[in-house]
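Dear colleagues,

As part of the handover before I leave the project, I'm documenting each prediction I ran so the next person doesn't have to rerun anything. This entry is a single chain, and its sequence is reproduced below.
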Amino acid sequence: MLPHPSEVIRDAVDAEQVPILDLTAYLAGEAGARDQVAADLRYIQENLGFYYITHHGVSDELIERAFEKVAEFFSLPEEEKRKIIVNRHQLGFVPAKASIMKTELTDANTMADLNEGLSLMRERTPDDPKVVADVRFSGLNQWPDGVPGLRETLLAYHVEMEAAAKRLLPLYALALGKPADYFAPFFEDAHYYNRNSLYPAVENPEGHQALGAHTDHNFMALLPMSAEPGLMYATPSGDWCIAPHVSGAIVVNTGEFLKRWSNGRFLPTPHRVTVPKRDRYALTFHYSPSDETVADPLDTCIGPDNPRQFEPKTFIQHMTDYIDAVYVPQQEMMEC
């Protein structure tokens, strides 16, 4: 049985402020630390769904280098970036106004987003069985010319971010009343989606957001903090708040797939990005289980007061539904 959440976490969540999970003691293996962080995580996920992690084990230097290389990519001429235009696997360059973000697949948003993207997933080889079978979202990454070191830097970033996300899985399992290793088998071939973004400083956005209000499709998303503000999150009471800058922190947000898996117990927090005063960049790392994983509500999340809310659904089907709802058809994207 987990302990009570710590007072500092409870106070932050109850005030609808973004709480900070310091992972120092947990990663050091100190006695009782894992259960305490899991208890804190459970309170966050059931009441807010949005938090920071610090002392997470990801190199600050690598994150900074990744930001620099991504900025170099977006500074390329438009025609250079379009040489790797995004394809049906959602890999490549995503031009501005190519998405209309959704909050849990509703149609509340009607304005296209101003951001540009460079979408990457797990690096695969031509003989990879999923590449050969042309499984959606398992194609070959498209890498641009003209940005030396981009590929090496972002592949190193993927390794560290996947490791950081994997270190959180035992906490999620314990927080949901499962053994610490419960989620491990589902993430042996984890599906990750690195959406690198430019949110441009636009003088007259004409009602467009840099990134419209939405919830994520994934199990969880990890987002190293940008130096330029703009990220906002929705509170349970209905307000929108600016996510304050915390040096060296990574934002973690629950996705809709985990909401399904937890039968609505763990909340996906709507968030958005306002048009910044200076160009803003993001290195979002969406982390999810393998394609074949079925989100069938956990037995620990079903009871007389919380009957089953969702039917079983595979991750690959869930991601397909989400991407096809959010992004404009590829032909339109080629013409925009």
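The first helix runs from residue 7 to 14. The CA atoms of residues 50 and 253 lie 5 Å apart.

All the best with the project,
I.
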